[in-house]
Every structure is written in structure tokens, then in C-alpha cells.
Design goal:
Elements: H1 3-26, E1 40-47, E2 52-54, H2 56-67, E3 72-83, E4 86-96, E5 105-115, E6 119-126, H3 128-131, H4 140-151
Amino acid sequence: MSMLDKNQATSLPTERLIEHFKLYYRNLLQPSNVRIDNIYADNMIFKDPVHEVTGLDQFSSYLDRLCDNLIDCRFEYLDELVGDGIAYIKWNMHYHHPKISSEPITLRGITHLHFDTHITYHEDVFDMGAMLYEHLTVIGPVTRFIKQKMGKS
């Protein structure tokens, strides 16, 4: 086996794990052929600007609650950086939640992953204002005004 063949053989599990991760979230409301327990470790940790969840069972429940009122939720992957046991994936999330907005919303974010054979740590980083606050009837105009003023400084 040549050196190139060895490198390709060792990188395949990582590539497959990242591809399965992206396939699972590509269209969150439509079941994929990828099972969540094939992607995540049982003792995984998930964080985003609002939640912190430990364990695959709690994370599965979190995803179920997240999807309850969504009409659409799909991810468009823009860029990724994958190293030995770590990955950063930049994305646009396109979603429609009628309690937030009558129109679909696009949110830009980054996912930070740690993994070995399964993902052990998953952190989503995004702007809560762009996801939620800007679209709410009462505080939306105030949030947009503040962001606009800050941009002009």
C-alpha cells in the first residue's frame, strides 16, 4: 500500500462522519437514511446560544422540540475546515417558523465539532438577533434599529 493509499484509508471515516452529519441536517424535517446514533456518541455535548444539552437522549428530545412548530428547516453548507478530530462547518440555515415570522428566514452560522469515531461535542454559533429578535413584532424594530446604529459608528 502506497503512502497516498494509507492516507486515504485513514481519512475515510472522518469524511464519512462529516458527510453523514451534513446529510442528517440538510433537510431537518425530512427523515434521512442516517441515524442520529450513528453520528453522535452517547455522552455527547451540544451547545448553542440558548441551550446546553448533555447526552444523546436529551439531544434527540431537544431536536424533536425544536422541530415541533417548524414548517421548513434546511441547511446550505458554505465552507468547512476538517482536521484531526475537529471540524468547523459554515452554513446558512433556511427555516420557517410561523410563530416568529410569516416569511422564511435565513440565518448564517458555524458549527464546531469534536469527534473520534462519533461526534462528542457539537456547538452551533450564530446571531440570536438575526435568528429571533429581529423578527418579533415588539422588539424586532428596536433590535434592527440598534444594529443599524452600531454599524454607523
